[in-house]
Predict the structure.
Amino acid sequence: MRYRTLALWSLVAAAISALPATAMARIKLITLPVRERAEIQLDNPGATLVEEERIVPLVKGVNQVDFSWANTQIDPNTIVFRVIAGADGEAPKATAKPAAAKETKPLDVKVLSVSYPPNEAALVWQVSSSDSGSARVRISYLLGNLTKSFNYRAVATNDEKALILSEYMRIQNLANESFGSTGLWAGFGPRFLKPIGINETKEMLVKKFTEVPVKKTYTCDPQAHGYLDRPQNKLLVPMHYVLKNNKANRLGVAPLQYGKVRIFQDDGHGGTAFIGEDWGKFTPLDDEMRLYVGVAQDVVVKRTIDKNQQHRIAGNLFDREVVIKFEIENFKDKAVVLDISENVRAIRNELYGNNGRDIQWELGKDTTFVEGSDKEKSTFEQLVFHIKLPARGADTKAEKIVHKLHLLIKNEW
Amino acid sequence: MIRGILGLGMLLVAASVVRAENVDLSTVPTRNTVQLTIYNSEDLTLVRETRKVSFKPGANPLQFSWANTLIDPTSVELRFLTHKDKLTLLDATFPHAKPQMVYWNVQSEMDGEAMVEITYFTSGISWSADYLCIANPAETDMGLEGFVRVHNNSGEEYEDAQVRLVVGRINLVQKIAELARITPQQVEELDDTERGKFKKDALVLAIEAPLLTAQSSARKSRSEEPKQVAKEGLGEYFIYTIEGTETIRNGWSKRMRSLEAAKVPLKIQYRYRLAEYGDQLVRMYLLTNDKDSKLGTTPLPDGIVRVFRENGRDGLSFLVAQSVKYIPIGDKIELNLGPDPEVIFELIKLRTWRDNLWMQLHGANVFRKVGEAGVVVQVNSSVVGWDDHTLYTQRVRNYTKKPIDLEVRRAFGGHVVFRSELPAKNHDYQTVEYTATVKPAEKVNLLYEIIQHQGWLAKQNNVTIEKAQVKP
């Protein structure tokens, strides 16, 4: 049973010529070099690297340096022992000899071998030193149960035109080892210098983005979001906040990490109101983070299949004609933009079954989306249209807007 | 911990008489030298040890026992290194009551000391290789260290042993650990041909290396320098010999550096290969095990490579730990670092359409092409052949600060034409490989069209590359 979860011992019982015999000795004099500095590198998505520096006293000749741990998940195969220059950037120094030498000579320190004792969470380095003195060594290892995650707090302005986005890194230390003032780095953003104790969770602000333009979208997509009321053919209309991760939108510093985003809105009275939360996906630069805030029940979209007809070309080969009608009402007191999204392949599958083939299609003349589909957001089978919806009238009545999507589906059998 | 007991006893009993059942007196000649030849591809170690034994004229019984160890009893052999002409091995007996023991009867024509060599196979000793790579911050070169780690779980302590490691795959017909657990009588029931082949194959690898003499064994290597590991080729194998001798206690393992190279040049390539790396673009470090790369002195045995990068702030970043297979001299070392969040790789299908549609009249061997001038296609016909066209863009965004080299391999099943202006070539009959360079902050669209002949028109199962302009 060890008293410490992590320990570095330097055996100073003179130069050792034969390690095993010494390793088995029952009487040992050991020094316990303390941790001088520690860094926790969290830049790898699947592993946490700890680097610690200790000043190890060495005697001239061969030394034994024990490294042991208990109840921590150090991967012993990943432990790297490196002798480095001192804090002043110089090589490790020999102990000054009082009478003769005023100048100290750099130590030549070499790792000769590493031994792994049975049934013990420990290893023993055999290190040779050209002289007696102290060497600054850096020990690096992968440590389990010390994990990071990210979360965000977004506070939208009262008019929902912009928001303040704060990105936090949360470190959870279940590694059963405490670290004093330790450098913490996520691979981007600032480098923190914080202590983190056993079983502690620490949350740090990585970056605060202010005045981030936010686009509020209302989207209906029968394949992705389904129906609010299927018998009445009323589509579910979720409301999203969309942030674009680029400089023009006051972001674009680094990819936005996956994490929960809690969204608040300025209530106009000096306070904020929680309006929803969503998991923000990993968002590379120039990509959009779409946050599902809630369902917009004041935008009503009714979707019906208005026409379904097929035309024989030859034998079992047909062209098909489908018209989908959207009846839209905006009961909000302000104008909004509605995104209508349809998957042409899913329409074919819905009406004619899935034949497994990609779809060949054209827009027909009865299509009423005059501005056409959004080229950036549409794909070969997914169409996205933007519709401007006026606010409801002063008489509280909403104007009913009707749009049609006319599809010619070709060469089907 | 169960300590093995490995002993050679000389029974001080009249040789010609039957051994006493319950009362014995023996002398125990100690081990003079020991050499371990450890094979990493199998749980196999050849042990060669020498001992000095005094013989008297006439019959001399010797007892060799190995309680609590994992020695294959069929492999134990005795040879005389000195006075060969005066010493004869008459017989060997494996007593039924004592399974881990052999008695040898030696006829001596001399009175004095002779050096004997005992060889046997044991399991429980193994070795493995691993590598530590630390790339510089600019990722133009790296330091590479190779290590060998010897594990001793054989039940026996081998002190001051010369250690030799065999790199390569040998053929074994039976596991040593299995043989170690059965009696010699049961071993006799095994197939003679197989047993003989196994012993012969492995003994070939006993390699005609001189066993260290007692004096040389006693010589310690330069104790304040890392031990050198000599490497030499032997047939299909490579032998690593660790300088001097090593003591590896039972249950312990020991790791030593076997090679070290600084400033090994590396190249970075981004690759997409579904079968090898999954459905993602991965970043690779590419090195070569050759002299130009400051390596190439030895093949690199199978092992784990742990890759770090100096992060430019006086620390390391852990990149990946990856298993590599045996890398011959001159071959490539490919390290997969996984996806790079600063490079976005998207395959977007832009458009699909069909043409060249052919119908077959029902019940007749008559085919008509749809839409051909002057051709009427009857109602009682079905589609039997067509071409599927799909237009793709491989969109790549590079947010790193350096240009990136990209290599994409995509496999297509069926009879396919790959049409594009990209520098494409066939990697194999159904895989197309193309390359591109993407500058920093650049977004490129690599366009290509796939034409898949279907049904009656599918005559082949391969991909043909056609250089042609394609438009979105």
